[in-house]
Amino acid sequence: MTEYGYFLACEDHGPKALVEQARMAEDAGFTALWISDHFHPWTDAQGHSPFVWSVIGALSQVTSLPVQTAVTCPTVRVHPVVAAHAAATAAVQLDGRFRFGVGSGEALNEHVTGERWPPAAVRLEMLEEAVEVMRRLHTGERVTHYGRHYTVENARLYDLPEEPVPIDVSGFGPAAIELAARIGDGFVCAGPQEESVRRFHHAGGGRQGGQAPTFTGLKAAYDRSRDEAVRTVHRRWPNLFLPGELGQVLPTPAHFEQAAELVTEAQVARSPIPCGPDPEAHIASLRSGAEAGFDRVFTSQLGSDVRGFFDFYRTEVLPRLT
After folding, report:
1. Could you give the 3-state DSSP secondary structure of residue 145?
2. What residues contact residue 84 under an 8 Å CB cut-off, 6+ apart?
3. Residue 66, Cα to own-chain centre: how many angstroms?
4. 248 and 117 in contact (C-beta within 8 Å)?
């Protein structure tokens, strides 16, 4: 049976607000948490981007829900040794209720150290090597590694969870999905991408050769006014409507804002994102993820009334799905 979780958007909320949202999500009946890992927001209108690992530490003290990053890029801005260390500590804090979602990243977050932003094929190659390094570190053994992209010397992690941290791999294009099917403990996606789930399972379904869990994220914009919800999404999240690989290659929020000048309110209104107070639209959105074959479907409130969103989902949406 599909589970429904809440997606904590670090781009759109500060650290204290995210912790409070985690409390409200659990009270509303959501059964898991996703949290984004960004250095920059997509646009200045979103206006936030706290350090995700500090927020996860705080989450471990206020919620009993499992937590998954969606997703961390452990290749450029953060060396895989540091990423493995952070993930292991998060898993200890959460008593094993942590899954490490990883992906090949976006220039928006990764170029900030001045390192070259490589093409997609190289990024996937780097991700595969990084996952190998992190899994070795999560055994607790001392690791020395001289690879094509990374060097590790005499590294050992001392605080580890009882079971190795599951590393779930994000994929959108065919090459990334096939990588996830080969090396992932689970598969991370965005949207009700039925073909992506099918491709993941056809390519092996995870490194154990079985039915690894699949996860996807959706968006919603609850408001008492549908028109106001549409305006909020257009103002704060126009990046959702940019085509192709722009999300991976544009380097700054200013560039996203320039590209988003082409996005109209009419596009938002026609999109699958449920906007406003109609519970049927929100239920249909979540069901689309379940019907596409995902085991866990997450949604995130894009509207301004966060408390109203959780009350709405607690009373009008989640009881009709579970």
Report:
1. strand
2. 74, 133, 134, 137, 138, 157
3. 14
4. no
DSSP 315: I
State pLDDT tens for residues 50-73. 999 999 999 999 999 999 999 999
pTM for this predicted structure: 0.97
Catalogue the E-assigned strands of 104-258.
Answer: 143-146, 151-155, 167-170, 186-190, 214-220
Cis peptide leading into residue 233 (ω within 30°): no
Question: E-strand spans in the chain?
Answer: 3-8, 33-35, 67-69, 98-102, 143-146, 151-155, 167-170, 186-190, 214-220, 296-301
> 60-63: long-range contacts (C-beta < 8 A, 24 or more apart)?
60/90, 60/93, 60/94, 62/19, 62/22, 62/23, 63/22, 63/23, 63/25, 63/26, 63/33
Q: Is 121 exposed, middle or buried (0-12, 13-18, 19+ CB in 10 A)?
A: exposed
Chain-centroid distance of CA 42 in Å reads: 14
Residues 56, 93: contact at Cβ < 8 Å?
Answer: yes
